[in-house]
């Protein structure tokens, strides 16, 4: 992206100085690029956190807090880490005892 900006700014064929009329277009292109990048990163973060929130028993809408850069993910992680999950515990297999063997026959 910076190479394209340098090419736009390096307009030495027409004028050896920076053309001030091109600056709004350059800034609009950079702003558009960062907007698309922000949306892509937000979607990449929201989809997994949506499924994790759902599996943890929370409202999946909680994952939309990730729209807030940096602090949204930290808040979401703190909510998950320090709250009681509303899921049923998996039954433990160590509590199961096999039945005793049958008694030997009496002679």
Q: How is the biggest beta sheet arranged?
A: none
* Low-pLDDT windows of residues: none
pLDDT averaged residue by residue: 81
Quickly give the structural class. Answer: mainly alpha
Using DSSP, what is the number of strands? Answer: 0
Task: Provide a descriptive summary of the structure in words.
With 107 residues, this protein is mainly α. The protein has a domain at 39-79. Helix content is 50%, strand content 0%. The protein has helices spanning 2-9, 23-55, 71-82. The chain is rod-shaped, with a radius of gyration of 30 Å. The chain starts with a helix and ends in a 25-residue tail after the last helix. The model has no long low-confidence stretch (mean pLDDT 81).
What is this structure's SSE topology?
Elements: H1 2-9, H2 23-55, H3 71-82
Question: Main attributes?
Answer:
107 residues; mainly alpha; 3 helices
Short description:
It is built from three helices and no strands.
């Amino acid at each position: 992206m910076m190479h394209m900006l340098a090419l736009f700014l390096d307009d030495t064929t027409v004028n050896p100085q920076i053309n001030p009329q091109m600056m709004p277009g350059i800034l609009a292109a950079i702003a558009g690029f960062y907007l698309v990048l922000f949306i892509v990163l937000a979607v990449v973060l929201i989809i997994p956190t949506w499924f994790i929130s759902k599996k943890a028993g929370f409202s999946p809408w909680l994952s939309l807090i990730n729209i807030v850069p940096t602090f949204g993910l930290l808040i979401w992680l703190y909510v998950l880490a320090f709250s009681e999950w509303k899921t049923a515990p998996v039954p433990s297999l160590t509590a199961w005892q096999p039945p005793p063997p049958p008694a030997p026959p009496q002679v």
